[in-house]
Amino acid sequence: MVEENDIPEFSGSELGAMAHLYRGEVYRSTIWRTRLDATTNWSVVSLGLALTISYQSPDSSALPLFLVAMLIGVFLYLESRRYRYFNVWRARARWLEIHFYAPMLRREKVEQHGWMERLAEDYQRPEHHISFPRALGRRLRRNYMWIFSVQTAALYGKCLGAAGSEAGFQSLHIGAFPGWVLATINGIGYVALALYTLNSWRMDKKRFAERMNPISMG
Fold this sequence. Notes:
- By secondary structure, this protein is mainly α.
- It has one domain (about 5-210).
- The protein has helices spanning about 10-55, 65-105, 115-125, 130-160, 165-170, 180-210.
- The two termini are about 30 Å apart.
- The relative contact order is 0.13.
């Protein structure tokens, strides 16, 4: 254990600046976290409206359940973009917690090189710490695969209800596209998203296993 007097001396103004810096990063990450919750809420509300319209009577069309999937896809795209910004502030806050506050609380020496240069570089030349495909996979894994699962189950439940498959798929008919074509497109899209989510989870798991502390800058 390192003695208390071995901790490097920071001036009062420097400690105050670090405290304000950390508080600012936590505040910004909280704001962006709220924006993530907003798009998820929009998706849930949209799906709820589609369910209400399609299941209000046995003769109601299943088409709203198909169309809402595209709207949810737009919300997923927006949320993935927002997650990349959220991750910037989150990474900076965690960087300070790991390299500054944690050693201080353990009464260990706070290293003054390496992590400080990396943080300064990030402030001078800010950049995203996560790629869009990874952000997309994480949002699917955390929220959107559950939403798409409910949407897909509701669509097939409506089409394959008591009326029988042939009559049920007719309720999904739009223009020149027969209902079974749209149902097939929805099924293929769901399976593709599920495979993408699984692959993203495997890549994140592998990355975390290769790094002692995966929650960091980048």
